[in-house]
Structures are given as structure tokens and as C-alpha cells.
Write a structure and sequence with these properties.
single chain; 97 residues; alpha+beta; two-stranded parallel sheet
Length: 97
């Protein structure tokens, strides 16, 4: 089995992170390319904080078959309304405990 790690660092403390829609679109393309490069191999996404939320949202895309998502430090609050729990991204993915 082959293993390829694709790294993306979205944590630039000098400025705000791009909007989630832009990040999901960008990372979805990367994931589709990796899946096409290694058909039949498991595809595992991982992220920390905002990266974990983006990974969940990418995994929920209909045309992407993800085997697992590893979420480290998943943010518990929504971007705009800090009083709302962030259940949308996790709710779209199948959660295992």
C-alpha cells in the first residue's frame, strides 16, 4: 500500500483565515486529485481546529469517498455566531465513537 501525505497550513497569524467556502473548495480539489492518483486506497483526512472542520466538510462532499476523518481540536463554536455550537460540519459526516 502506498502512503502520500498532502500538507496544507492555513494558520497564518498575520491575517485572518480565508472564508470556509474557499477553503473547502481548495481542499476538495486536492482530495479529489489524491483519490484519483490512488484509486481503491483508503483516503483519510486529518485536521486541527479549523482544519478539522474543513476536513469534515470536504468528507461530506457527495463525490468524495473518505474512509476516515481525524479531528484534533475541532472548534465547538460557529464562525459568525459564537453562541451556536458547530454541529453542521460534524453532522454532515458519519460520527463514530
Amino acid at each position: 500500500m502506498q502512503l502520500e501525505v498532502v500538507w496544507s497550513d492555513i494558520n497564518d497569524r498575520r491575517k485572518a483565515a480565508p472564508k470556509p467556502e474557499k477553503l473547502v473548495g481548495f481542499h476538495s480539489d486536492i482530495v479529489r486529485n489524491a483519490a484519483a492518483k490512488y484509486p481503491g486506497h483508503p483516503l483519510i483526512l486529518a485536521g486541527k481546529s479549523l482544519g478539522s472542520r474543513i476536513s469534515c466538510m470536504v468528507a461530506a462532499e457527495n463525490d468524495i469517498d473518505v474512509s476516515a476523518v481525524v479531528c484534533l481540536g475541532h472548534p465547538l463554536k460557529e464562525w459568525g455566531d459564537r453562541s451556536m455550537l458547530a454541529t453542521i460540519a460534524l453532522g454532515a459526516a458519519q460520527v463514530c465513537s
